[in-house]
Amino acid sequence: QVQLVETGGGSVQPGGSLRLSCAASGSILYISTMAWYRQAPGKERELVAAMSSGGSTNYADSVKGRFTLSRDNGKNTAYLYLQMNSLKSEDTAVYYCNGYMNSLHNYWGQGTQVTVSS
After folding, report:
1. What 8-state DSSP symbol labels residue 64?
2. Which of 100, 98, 36 is nearest to 67 (CA)?
3. Cα(18)–Cα(8) distance, rounded to whole angstroms?
4. 54 bridge partner residues
5. pLDDT tens across 54-110, in order?
6. Cα dihedral 99, 5, 59, 75 in deg (nearest 10)
7. Exposed e or buried b for every residue in 12-47, given b needs 16+ CB within 10 A?
């Protein structure tokens, strides 16, 4: 089992910045990929950025150059951070942290709201 807890969401004006944090605990040694997804009202959940256990990253085209993913592996807790700069109104969504082991063990956090509005 893996527990994921997101923090750092909030409201910001266009052009502003936010930093999301995800704390992963439990069987974190078996997590192969950690990622951030988001879901806007009326839309499907989409991948924002992901990082493998080896450190390779990939980003959605819509966030490249604006968002940066980083990971900090502790002994009992792993942290995944998403630094979001130059935020746009279309970034408004609920952001979810994901920890993937295999198709049977795919974990989600409860989500944190990000609202970009003037």
Report:
1. T
2. 36
3. 7
4. none
5. 889 999 999 999 999 999 887 789 999 999 999 999 999 999 999 998 888 999 999
6. -60
7. beeeeebebbbbbebebeebebbbbbbeeeeeeeee
pLDDT tens column, 26-65: 888 888 999 999 999 999 999 999 999 888 999 999 999 9
DSSP letter at 28 equals: G
Alpha-carbon distances, residue 51 vs 22, 48, 94 (angstroms): 13, 11, 19
Q: Which distant-in-sequence residues (6+ apart) come within 8 Å of 32 by Cβ?
A: 52, 53, 100, 101, 102
Report residue 19: phi and psi, to 5°: -125, 120
pLDDT band at 9 (very low <50, low <70, confident <90, very high): very high
Whole-number Å distance between alpha carbons of 58 and 33: 11
Nearest by Cα to 50 from 76, 27, 22, 26? 22
Residue pair 86/66 in contact (Cβ under 8 Å)? The answer is yes
Q: Across all residues in the chain, what is the average pLDDT?
A: 94
